[in-house]
Amino acid sequence: MKALNLYGIEDLRYEETTPPEIDNSNDVIIKVVATGICGSDNSRYKKLGPYRAGTPFGHEFSGTVHSVGDDVKHLSIGDAVTGCPAIVCHKCEQCEKGAYSRCENLYVIGSYEPGCFAEYVKLPAHNVLKLPNNVDFDTAAMVEPSAVVAHGFYRTTMKPGATVAVIGCGSIGLLALQWAKIFGAAKTIAIDIDPNKLEIAKTLGVDYIINSKEENLNDVIKTLPFNIDVAVESAGSPFTIGQVLTLPSKGGEVLLLGIPYSDIEINREHFEKILRNELNVIGSWNGLSAPFPGEEWHASLHYMSTGKIKVHAMISDYLDLAQGPAIFDAIVNNKKHFNKVIFHP
Residue 285: which residues within 8 A CB-CB, separation 6 or more? Predict the structure, then answer.
């Protein structure tokens, strides 16, 4: 099969690769139809390099069941599916509690096992979910990031009628604005420095947009006729991780979804917001709960099927997998503007 294999920093090759085989009775091999680039894939390509040189990476995908092990009963050849890419041990203390996102041995495909930037990918059967009939493959390729966002919102205590602000309107942020409405937000605020992303947020029904490059964010927040109950950081920027602490009203919540890839320093003013405003600062990792892979996955598929989670406005490019090396180079070296990129192997 053909795959995108990562050999080193900015060393990505589209080449012939050994396809996966059924080794265990609960294995499922999936023919990949759509697979998306995650922000963490860009960081792996640009800054971190592979876990294992020459391994296909990628972990957001959908496809059809190609073959199954003898013990797999809930899936049939040809079923349209998506897959949870997180592999957990099911043995450690956290797994025994059902806190799978905190598994001591968690990893995702594309690291120690081959990922989905390939024609075929393999997962354990309990990681594979059937698609509702009205959820297309491109939408289903974004169930994983949706589940990650949902996991964060399940960790908050937000109530219907809340105001939610999201800083950083990439894919995670745009999904967060939609999940905020699902959780009952009366008002949503999108904050970013990219007017293109803010325009997408508008099309997805956000109530207010703030371009924090053109306006002073603190000044704008002070003029709002309402308080912010929950502030979501989804950029992973050292700057916005401090800035988000200034957004909620006293007693509010801060949900941290963005992953920083450099050290973070929080200045005194921002840190004191946690203390003086008695903020509840919530870290969130992955998108798993019990029963595995969790309510986040089933809820994502449900709301995609009802149209409350829309992803097509977020996707800028649908490309052949063979273009992968050139596209990753263009993304991380700012040669062209992209929103979400979906490959079709």
Answer: 101, 102, 151
Amino acid identity of 189? I
Tokens for 122, please give them. Answer: 């393999």
Instruction: Calculate the alpha carbon distances from 107 to 84, 86, 94, 116 in Å.
Output: 11, 6, 14, 14
- Tokens 């200034």, located at residue: 246
Angle CA 92–93–98, to nearest 5: 95
| Length of the chain measured in residues | 345
Is residue 51 one of the residues assigned to a domain? yes
What CA–CA distance (Å, rounded) separates 173 from 286? 15
Residue type, 117: F
**For residue 316, what are the domain limits?**
2-142+311-344
d(CA 155, CA 164): 14
pLDDT tens digits for range 222-265? 999 999 999 999 999 988 999 999 999 999 999 999 999 888 88
178 shares a domain with 222: yes
